[in-house]
Specification:
single chain; membrane; xenobiotic transmembrane transporter activity; mainly alpha; 486 residues; transport; globular; MATE_fam; cell membrane; 78% helix
């Protein structure tokens, strides 16, 4: 294994031959960025600055579904259950779109670092076309989801309502996909605030639409108003992001539509997109399995599990935002063939992950009682939830490292390793151990979270080892192969 850059990889063009950007220099031709030796402090500043915008973006985007649940929840128990079921189904299946889009964290960032902005635009178009193609069967699944959901939930009225929600929200799926891939297109250029600005506009509009379409006496349509508001918001997000690129910033990496080329050479992109899907879905599905399992432990335990899972989902947005910032930074350095800087970015990312994990653990552990009372005042639910949040707090120490280490792997273009480790740790360790401790050993909800935590700990250690024990010669070779694809 080689941990240093070969001499031929470090002979790069002078800085002033390219226009300056936050992430280095770039030219319209086939060229590379200059290797300016970076520092730990500089890398920390850049990653932290970009990650802050990403974290805000993820929180605002996550709020769209939360608003739907709140607006519909007051219509009745059946409607609340239906919107919860449909939102969970949408999150799981649309995770495929998010996972596939993460391949652009590698392709676009490395192309931009290599000084090939036109290739950045082509990668974006190829990924967009590939995800839109995959969206066809997923949309069909939403349209005919009632019989499938009925296998797990024996209530036809409930599953029919959930199907109606999914059918309406599917109208916004092209906008959702365009926004997800468009974010990566801009992030590769060091433009992290565009999506944040878009959501500053769309989030309050979504709240207003939910009120008008669900509750307003004149134009409200009840339950169906919530998914319609969400679908409109997704479409508006895509339109505003496009307008940002066209009128403000980001068009330097656009070289017009290339429809024919967009449907070529999907193989290399798919080879990173599929592992990206697995990395996103493996953890999400593991949490859903534990939530369904908690139902066997009683209503109070299920309610406590829902509180803990919601907290985990919200907290996840923080390290995930940092992981995108880290992967983009690392990928840009690799595309510029600047291995010393890439290694520094990896080191800084893992150090930030450790500090962040300690901070989140401290906040959740000491504030767990306040957090639980935000959700419920039921004494039994509070008792169970406090147990879950105590373990969740400890788990965050290494889950933050896990999530950010996965971002480092994406920056290196090694998603396959990450996907294999996720499958191995979640489904041969975390889930089986959680079910064993919860039901056979009688630990209940505590057992579910302890088992999950053990799996995450093993995953974090394994990913950090993989990130640090990397053949940088191979990473550079694969990067140059991607940047020579047309």
């Amino acid at each position: 294994m080689s941990n240093s850059a070969p001499p031929e990889y470090t002979k790069l063009l002078p800085v002033d031959e390219h226009p300056e950007t936050e992430y280095g220099s770039v030219d319209d031709g086939d060229c590379s960025s200059s290797e300016q030796q970076t520092t730990i402090l500089e890398e920390a500043k850049v990653i932290a600055r970009s990650s802050l915008s990403l974290i805000i973006t993820f929180f605002l985007q996550y709020s769209l579904n939360v608003v739907s649940i709140f607006s519909v929840g007051h219509l009745g128990r059946t409607e609340l259950a239906a919107v919860s079921l449909s939102t969970m189904t949408f999150n799981i299946t649309s995770g495929v779109f998010n996972g596939m889009a993460t391949c652009l964290d590698t392709f676009c960032a490395q192309a931009y670092g290599a000084g090939k902005p036109k290739l950045v635009g082509l990668h974006f178009q190829r990924c967009l076309c590939m995800v839109l193609t995959i969206a066809i069967p997923i949309n069909l699944l939403w349209w005919f989801s009632s019989p499938i959901l009925n296998v797990f939930v024996k209530n036809k009225e409930l599953t029919d309502l959930a199907q109606t929600y999914l059918r309406i929200v599917s109208i916004g799926s092209p906008g959702f996909i365009l926004f997800e891939t468009g974010k990566r297109f801009l992030q590769a250029q060091g433009i992290f605030h565009a999506a944040q600005y878009v959501l500053y506009i769309c989030t309050p509009i979504n709240v207003i639409l939910n009120y008008l379409l669900v509750w307003d006496k004149d134009i409200g349509i009840g339950f169906c108003g919530a998914p319609l508001a969400t679908a409109f918001s997704y479409t508006l997000m895509a339109v505003l992001l496009f307008l940002y690129v066209y009128f403000i910033d980001g068009s330097k990496c656009w070289n017009g539509l290339h429809i024919r080329e967009s449907f070529k050479n999907w193989g290399p992109m798919a080879s990173l997109a599929l592992p990206g899907v697995i990395m996103i879905e493996a953890e999400f599905l593991a949490f859903e399995i534990l939530t369904l399992s908690a139902a066997r432990l009683g209503t109070e335990v299920l309610a406590a599990q829902s509180i803990a899972s919601t907290c985990a989902s919200l907290i996840f947005q923080i390290p995930f935002g940092l992981s995108i910032g880290a992967s983009t930074r690392i990928g840009t350095h690799i595309g510029a063939q600047s291995l010393a800087n890439a290694q520094t970015a990896v080191t800084v990312s893992l150090e930030i992950a450790t500090v962040l994990g300690i901070f989140i653990t401290f906040c959740i552990y000491n504030g767990r009682r306040v957090i639980v009372t935000w959700f419920t005042d039921d004494a039994k639910v509070i008792e169970h939830a406090l147990v879950a949040l105590r373990i969740l707090a400890v788990n965050q120490l290494y889950d933050s490292i896990n999530v950010i280490a996965a971002g480092c792997l994406r920056g290196q273009g090694r998603q396959k390793i990450g996907s294999n480790l996720n499958l191995l740790c979640y489904y041969t360790v975390a889930v089986p151990l959680a079910l064993l401790l919860a039901f056979r050993e009688g630990w209940g909800l505590e057992g579910l979270w302890v088992g999950l935590g053990v799996g995450i700990l093993i995953l974090a250690v394994s990913e950090v080892f993989a990130v640090l024990r990397v053949d940088w010669d191979w990473v550079l070779k694969k990067s140059m192969e991607r940047n020579n694809v047309t």
